């Protein structure tokens, strides 16, 4: 299944990231095969995932952004048992490692704000063993090329990728896919 998800990202590199009821509604019918869920709580996440799955989508839940979930392995257990999510997104290596052990697809989210966070990336990725790396902000082609040199997994560019030019630049710089909450970009 993990190989299939990576192939889907390569075939359709625009990932719809949803952060509201409005974007959720649009994601149900958008052309993106993969949806990143960046909102919800323990009461609503099951329904959000179920509806997206019913629409034929591959669903990744950002465990760090779901209200009511702790930063513990039990959060991963909950998502695995209570939802049909295909994977998780997190900036926390321990959660990603737990998700991998449970057969979920894993997206390690990195906020690259300075050289220290960049140089820490390989170590953190080595701990998490994530399937892909998500780099924020993703509108930094030079940094994306640096990341490509130090990791051996595919890269997703995210954050501030808000028009076709930035999408193309990120893909040319080495990103395999783009994740965006900008619904206009979903239509590119």
Automatic annotation (TrEMBL):
Taxonomic superkingdom: Bacteria
Keywords: Glycerol metabolism, RNA-binding, Transcription, Transcription regulation
Gene3D superfamilies on file: Aldolase class I
InterPro entries to which the protein is assigned, alphabetical: Aldolase_TIM (IPR013785), GlpP (IPR006699)
A Pfam family assignment: G3P_antiterm
RNA-binding is among the record's keywords: yes
Summary of the function given for this chain in its UniProt record: Regulates expression of the glpD operon. In the presence of glycerol 3-phosphate (G3P) causes antitermination of transcription of glpD at the inverted repeat of the leader region to enhance its transcription. Binds and stabilizes glpD leader mRNA.
Protein name in UniProt: Glycerol uptake operon antiterminator regulatory protein
Organism: Enterococcus viikkiensis
């Amino acid at each position: 299944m993990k190989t299939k998800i990576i192939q889907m990202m390569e075939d359709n590199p625009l990932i719809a990231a949803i952060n509201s009821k409005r974007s959720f509604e649009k994601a149900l019918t958008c052309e993106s095969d993969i949806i990143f869920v960046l909102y919800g709580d323990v009461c609503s996440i099951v329904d959000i995932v179920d509806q997206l799955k019913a629409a034929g989508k591959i669903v990744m839940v950002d465990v760090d952004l779901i209200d009511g979930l702790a930063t513990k392995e039990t959060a991963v257990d909950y998502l695995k048992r209570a939802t049909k999510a295909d994977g998780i997104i997190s900036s926390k290596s321990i959660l990603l490692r737990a998700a991998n052990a449970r057969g979920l697809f894993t997206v390690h989210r990195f906020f690259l704000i300075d050289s220290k966070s960049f140089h820490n990336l390989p170590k953190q990725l080595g701990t998490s063993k994530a399937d892909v790396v998500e780099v924020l902000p993703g509108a930094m082609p030079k940094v994306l090329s640096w990341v490509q040199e130090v990791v051996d997994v595919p890269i997703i560019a995210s954050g501030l990728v808000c028009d076709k030019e930035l999408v193309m630049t990120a893909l040319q710089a080495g990103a395999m896919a783009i994740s965006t909450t900008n619904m206009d970009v979903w239509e590119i």
